[in-house]
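Shipment paperwork, digital attachment
Item: protein structure file
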Amino acid sequence: MRCAICKKKAEVYLPHHNLALCREDFINFFLKRVKKAIDDFNMFEKEDRILLAVSGGKDSLSLWHALLKLGYNAIGLFIDLGIDKFSKLAREVVEKFSKKNKTNLITVKLENEFGGNTLPQIVERTKAIPCKVCGKIKRYYFDRIASKENFDVIATGHNLDDESAFLLGNVLNWNIEYLAKQLPALPEEDGFKKKVKPLIYLTEREIAIYAFFNEIYYNELNCPFSKKAKSHFYKESLHQMELSFKGLRIKFFKGFLRNQKIFGKVEKNYSLSPCKICGYPTSKEICGVCKIKINLGLIEREK
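Attachment content:
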C-alpha cells in the first residue's frame, strides 16, 4: 500500500478516512487536524498562554507535543493524586517529557494540599465516589492556577472517542443541560477561564500512532478507580459499531456539533459567588474542595 500523498510505502491506514499514509505525512495529518480544531472553534492564538492539563497518558502528552510543534505557548499542569504506582509512573513520564522538550511544568501534589492525604485516603475517609471527587479536585486546581498565573485558556486532551462516548451517554440519558454545553470550546465566564479540547477530530488509535512515531513515552496503566466508569461501556459500544460502520464516531459527533443549538442555552437557576473560605467561584457558601477539607478536619466549618 502506498501513501496517498507522497506515494512512498504507507505505514498507517485510517479506515474512516479511507487514507493510507507514510510516517511523515501521518504526522502532518495529525498536526493539521489539531490546527483545524483550534481554528474551527477559535480556541486560542499564538500569543495566548495555554495551561495544558497533563495526566501522563498518551492523549495529553501527544497534545502537548503537537502544540509545541505548532508553535503555541503551552505549559503543563500535572496533579499528583498519590495513587500508588499509577501516579508515580505518571509523574515520571510527565517530568521526562518536560525535560526532553525543554518546556515548563507545574506540579500540584495532592497530599501537600490535603494535610498529607492522597486521593485514595480522601476517598476512604470521606466515603466519596472516586471519579466524582477526583474530577472536582482537578477542576478546582486547573481553574485556580490558571487564574493565579494569568493563563488565557485551559486545554485538555479529550479526543474523539471520549467526546462521542460522552455524547452517547448524554443522549441515552437525555442530559439536556450537558448536551447544551458539550462544546469543544467553552468561553470564559463566571470567574472561570476558557476551556478547550484540541484533539476532538482525532481518535485514540491515531493519537497512539502519533505518540509511537514521535517516541512519546507515556503511562499505559489505567487508573484503578476508573474500572467501573460508564464511559468505558459507551466507548466500547461505539467501537463495535465503528467496525461495521466506518466513520460512525466522527459523523455522530460532527452531526451533533452542527445541530447542537437545538438543545438551546440552559438558563442558570443559580448564581456564583466567592467561596467564604478560599474565594473560588461557587453556587454555595463554601466550595466543594473546602468542604472536603472540612470533612477531613483540615479546616473548621464557620458557625
